[in-house]
Amino acid sequence: MNHAPLTxxxxxxxxACGFGGLALAGLTSSLLPASDGTLTTLHHPxxxxxxxxxxxxGGVSQVDSxxxxxxxxxxxxxxxxxxxxxxxxxGGTGANRRVMKPLWExxxxxxxxxxxxxxxxNIAKHMDDLxxxxxxxxxxxxxxxxxxxxxTGATNFQRPSMxxxxxxxxGSENSNLPGFVSIGPSLGxxxxxxxxxxFLPAVYQGTAIGRAGMPARxxxxxxxxxxxxxxxxxxxxDLQQALNGAQLQHAPGEQEMEALVSSYELGWRMQTQAPSVxxxxxxxxxxxxxxxxxxxxxxxxxxxxxxxxxxSEAGVRFVQVNYNVNSSSNPAWDQHSDMPRHADHAAxxxxxxxxxxxxxxxxxxxDDTIVWWGSEFGRTPYAENNGSGRDHNPSGFTMxxxxxxxxxxxxxxxxxxxxxxxxxxxxxxxxxHATLLYQLGIDHERLxxxxxxxxxxxxxxxxxxxxxxxx
Length: 471
Hints:
By secondary structure, this protein is α/β, with parallel strands linked by helices. It has a single domain (49-229, 282-469), classed as 3-Layer(aba) Sandwich (Alkaline Phosphatase, subunit A). Helices cover 31% and strands 18% of the residues. The chain contains twelve helices and 21 strands. Strands 3, 8, 9, 10, 11, 12, 15, 16 and 19 form a nine-stranded mixed sheet that branches. A four-stranded antiparallel sheet has the order 4-5-13-14, with no helix packed on it. Strands 1-2 form a two-stranded antiparallel sheet. Helix 10 (299-313) runs parallel beside helix 11.
């Protein structure tokens, strides 16, 4: 049987029956896939268009950063029974734990009077722009489960990451760039699952730029600079896509193949767009100095934060900036025996994060960009093994968000007098996910995908929007 030649026009026509239909949501940002497969408008007006997530892997201590607890100073050195989940899991009773006071001085900052420690002196200057959530609690007491839960809403099952859900719902603002990028992700504690699409179509997975432990100077989109004359490269690309299209004719609706063909299309468009987007040399010297580029302590994370601003400004929907000193399963902020090392990590991240806030604000981008900062859990108010570090604490910890319609200079919720358990206006991780989606115009209960006979969503069967945090 003779087949008509498969031109590029015919290839795109065939794709429209499969991946192309799904991609329509990405091409028209006001459209959203409904659970029944139809397209409808956003569920409600959006306050934000994009997210930058600054992931502090390992567990920043809330009682040493943004959750001031005078009782820790009064009770410092006292032996108290902290029968928390971590102690019980290890077969102990939690008895005879030594209270450890904050290692850094706290002060009230700005007109809001929010508390922040000297651990983050530059971020502390922006407290009037932050919505500080002091009553987070989550699932998982170890890094792997808790990190997966933070990113996917599940501790062990393979579920789509939040960035994938967001890309599925809203698409990208720039069809020449990926809609979801993870900068320097770790290979441990979930690895690619933290930016994967799981059972969502593969086209919605995140694009990794480098990996943890790789110098930021070397981070770039891979394999997008053509090494052949443009005419020859175009001819090779058209031939490759025609062959892929021929395969699709024999397997219509094959999502992985459709995603592969789409990725080649995106890669081709990125040839001329992406290199200039993430080029730090095009920035002014004052901007480079603001972030701390070329300073020994801050250069690495500064380049990542500047890259996040460049990508977000160019229309990338979800950018994750990962802070982890290596790609192993031992995250950066995991100070079980040496809390003073928190200062090293703060020195590497504080100026770049503060610069990102200032830069977005100066460019008018903070109003519709959510900057989200935090770890998979916090740390205990007592010394682990009565030594010089703190253990994991998923029961009460702090994150902050800025921009995107969140209240500014506002603290939500509270932990107990020791900063151990969330007790007032508690915010579960599902609640935070629901609230972030809400600010982007999405009802978390309606953004679903049918898989294996049931409808799935980021927040599983729970989660409440925390309206008190919204302006």
